[in-house]
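From the methods appendix. Each design record in this collection lists the tokenized structure first, followed by the designed amino acid sequence. Records were kept in a plain field format so they could be parsed without special tools. The example shown here is representative of the layout used throughout.

RECORD:
FOLD TOKENS (373 positions):
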């Protein structure tokens, strides 16, 4: 199914990530239920491997040259989009009657993105422009901003619910982020100098795969963000391994089968029935997240000194949302059990929509900018 979706996408100019997710829904539990439970059980492991590879490649885009040229724009856009998303979505949900603590939690969840779908849409669109490079940089740091925002939002939401100010969630997330940076440095620094010293071919593939799996495995064991640690390791190796760039070429060659299976199984495990039950709250969440990201892209673009055309497209290009959002929803539902059904239904339902439609907008935005540069 993945290979068929890949072939179709090349003919109809639709992102393969969206087609694969749709195919996964058709053959998964929401469709004809053709995939055995033993196979869908592999989704968690495959998602870690695929996302770790994506994180490693995204980290490699943070070069001194890219940061010197685009650092101001990347930071301005990412900060503005995250801030306006959490505030805008929270306020809109509160105005339609959602309890304030649940609205704040959902607003924070709305900041999460999907680096795998975004990166794949950029690559398929032939993204070699400055717009695409900035987009990669934003996605690289977006989930770090999102985790910090989510931790702060949960603390605020608990206070609003009358539970007082509790720092447990905040300190946990700070450890998750700080520990991830430490793991990335611990693996990336020696790997930058030790890799690429043997002959090309299979030894380099083993080195590259070993780095990615070791980083992800250690991160999971230590309870830190494997996405962030992979990005840090990739950035360190790209910037310090002056004698080669082979690890990144090898990961690009190795990653596609894992990413293909990841998207198919992601679709197979999505519950599309949630779309029917999400109600008006889900529609408000869906619409307000789109508007907030467009507004954030526009304001961040002004702060970053970008052209009006770029300002219009960055928010649209950052619509994909996936597993990180669902993970946040599970945490929020545990913290606020009285709002569990509302939070999980809204996030799961809108994730289906954003995962299918989001990469299409990313793809179109990148192609639009490619045609004007």
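DESIGN:
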């Amino acid at each position: 199914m993945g290979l068929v979706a890949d072939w179709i996408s090349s003919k109809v100019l639709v992102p393969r990530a969206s087609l694969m997710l749709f195919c996964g829904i058709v053959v998964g539990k929401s469709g004809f239920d053709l995939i055995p439970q033993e196979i869908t059980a592999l989704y968690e492991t495959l998602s870690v491997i695929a996302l770790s590879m994506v994180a490693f490649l995204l980290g490699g885009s943070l070069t001194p040259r890219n940061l010197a040229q685009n650092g101001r724009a990347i930071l301005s856009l990412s900060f503005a989009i995250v801030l306006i998303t959490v505030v805008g979505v929270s306020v809109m949900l509160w105005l339609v009657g959602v309890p304030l603590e649940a609205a704040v939690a959902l607003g924070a969840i709305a900041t999460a993105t999907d680096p795998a779908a975004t990166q794949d849409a950029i690559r398929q669109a032939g993204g070699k422009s400055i717009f695409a490079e900035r987009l990669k940089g934003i996605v690289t740091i977006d989930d770090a901003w999102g985790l910090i925002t989510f931790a702060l939002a949960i603390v605020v939401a608990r206070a609003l619910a009358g539970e007082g100010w509790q720092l447990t969630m905040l300190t946990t997330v700070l450890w998750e982020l700080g520990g991830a940076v430490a793991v990335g440095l611990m693996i990336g620094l020696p790997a930058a100098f030790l890799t690429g010293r043997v002959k090309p071919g299979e030894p380099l593939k083993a080195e590259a795969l070993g780095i990615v799996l070791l980083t992800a495995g250690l991160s999971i064991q230590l309870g830190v963000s494997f996405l962030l640690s992979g990005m840090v390791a990739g950035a360190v190796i790209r910037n310090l391994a002056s004698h080669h760039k082979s690890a990144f070429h090898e990961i690009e060659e190795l990653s596609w089968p894992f990413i293909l299976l990841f998207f198919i199984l992601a679709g197979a495990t999505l519950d599309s029935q949630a779309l029917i039950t999400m109600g008006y709250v889900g529609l408000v969440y869906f619409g307000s997240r789109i508007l907030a990201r467009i507004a954030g892209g526009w304001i961040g673009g002004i702060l970053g000194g970008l052209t009006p055309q770029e300002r219009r497209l960055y928010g649209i290009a950052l619509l994909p949302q996936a597993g990180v959002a669902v993970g946040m929803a599970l945490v929020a539902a545990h913290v606020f059990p009285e709002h569990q059904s509302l939070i999980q239904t809204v996030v799961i339902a809108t994730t289906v929509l954003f995962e299918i439609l989001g990469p299409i907008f990313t793809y179109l935005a990148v192609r639009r900018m490619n045609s004007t540069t």
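APPENDIX NOTE: The radius of gyration is 20 Å.
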